[in-house]
């Protein structure tokens, strides 16, 4: 079972300050140790931090037509600051890994969300050979998390 751990944005992750420097040194060490533990356990499939929404854009469709709005966006609690993709045997195991999230992140005040990914097996009876082949090709790419 694959799960995404979603790190919700906050005022600090949305700030324009550089993520390098003395104030971020402990957090970087802690996150590296956490990620290494997941790699050592063989469950980590990917993960990245995201730049502030000021570097992004929001694209909304109305009647099939896109409208692009450049960031920043005002509601930080609705934004994502980063993600970690893991593959474990159960939701309970995923929750146990989330409980180990470094307390130095957000000075101990972080909001995380755990979401299970759809698997091709979830679409049995609907997924034809074309979808199965596309899935196979995507997972063969070194740039696509499995």
Characterise this structure.
The chain has 146 residues and is α+β, with helices and mostly antiparallel strands. The chain has one domain: Alpha-Beta Plaits (2-Layer Sandwich). It is 27% helix and 26% strand. The chain has helices at 22-41, 91-98, 129-140; strands at residues 2-8, 44-49, 57-62, 65-70, 80-87, 112-116. The protein has a four-stranded antiparallel β-sheet, covered by helices on one side. It has a two-stranded antiparallel sheet with strand order 3-4. β3 and β4 form a beta hairpin. The longest helix has 20 residues, at 22-41.
Total helical segments: 3
**Whole-number tally of structural domains:** 1
Ranges where pLDDT stays below 50 over 5 or more residues in a row are none
Sheet-strand content, in percent, reads 25-35%
Question: Which CATH-level-2 architecture?
Answer: 2-Layer Sandwich
Q: Describe the sheet with the most strands.
A: 4 strands, antiparallel
* Integer average pLDDT: 88
CATH topology: Alpha-Beta Plaits
Computed structural class: alpha+beta
Distance between the termini: 11 Å
Q: Give the SSE order as H and E letters.
A: EHEEEEHEH
Radius of gyration: 18 Å
Q: What is the CATH superfamily classification?
A: Dimeric alpha+beta barrel
What is the helix fraction of residues, given as a range? 25-40%
Adjacency order of strands in the biggest sheet: 2-5-1-6
What is the C-level CATH assignment? Alpha Beta
Care to count the β-strands?
6
Shape: globular
Family: Belongs to the YciI family.
Protein name: YciI family protein
Pfam families: YCII (PF03795)
